[in-house]
Amino acid sequence: MAGSWAMLPILICSAVTLAIILERFWSLRRKAVVPAGLGNEVREWARTRKLDPEHLNALRTNSPLGELLAAALTVRHRPREVIKERVEDTGRHVVHRLERFLNTLGTIALISPLLGLLGTVFGLIRMFFAVMVSGVGDPLKMAGGIGEALVCTAAGLCVAIPAYAFHRYFRGRVSDLVVEMERQVFLLTDELTATGETVAAATPTAAPAAVRVARTAT
User: Fold this and answer.
1) Residue 7 near residue 155 (C-beta atoms within 8 A)
2) N or C: which terminal CB in the chain sees fewer CB atoms within 10 Å?
3) Contact at 8 Å (CB) between 112 and 161?
4) pTM summary value
C-alpha cells in the first residue's frame, strides 16, 4: 500500500518467480532427469539384445535421459552418424523442456528493477505536484512521495535479485545434466558399436574377410 499501484505488477512478478523456482527445483531433480543406473541397465540390454519395442517404449517415457537413449536404440542398426543425428534432434527437444520457464524467469529479473524505477518516477512526480500545490511548507506530502518512490525501488530489487540468481543457477544445472546425458549416450553408442549393432561397426570386420576370400580364390 505504501508503494501505491506500481507495487501490483511487482507483486505479480514475485508470485510468478516463486512458482517457477519451486517448479524447476522439482523438475530438474537429478534422479528425475538422469536416473541412477539407467545407463548401465540400457547398456546391459544392448549386450543381451533385450531391445524389443516394449523395452524401448518404457525407456522413452522413463526420463529425459531415457528418451535420448531410446532415440539412439531406435536407429541402432544404422551408421553411427545417423545415430548421432537422431540423438541431436531428440536432444534439442529435451533441452527445450529442461529450460522451460527459464526465459520467463530471466525476463522477470530484467523488468522488475524497471517496474521499481517506474514506481520511483511516479512517486517523485507525486511529490513535485504536492510541492506545486502546497509549497514546501507541508513535509508530510513530500515524505509520502519519497516513501512511495523508495518502496517501489526496494521491492523491484528484492524480486529481481533472487530471480536473476536462480535463473543463472538453473541454467548451470541444465548444462550439467546435459553433459551427463551426452556421456551416457556416448557410452551406449560405443556399446552398440562393440556388439556389432551399428552398420559402421560391421563394415570393418566384413572387409578383411572379403579380402581373404579373394586371395584364397586366386
Assistant:
1) yes
2) C
3) no
4) 0.77
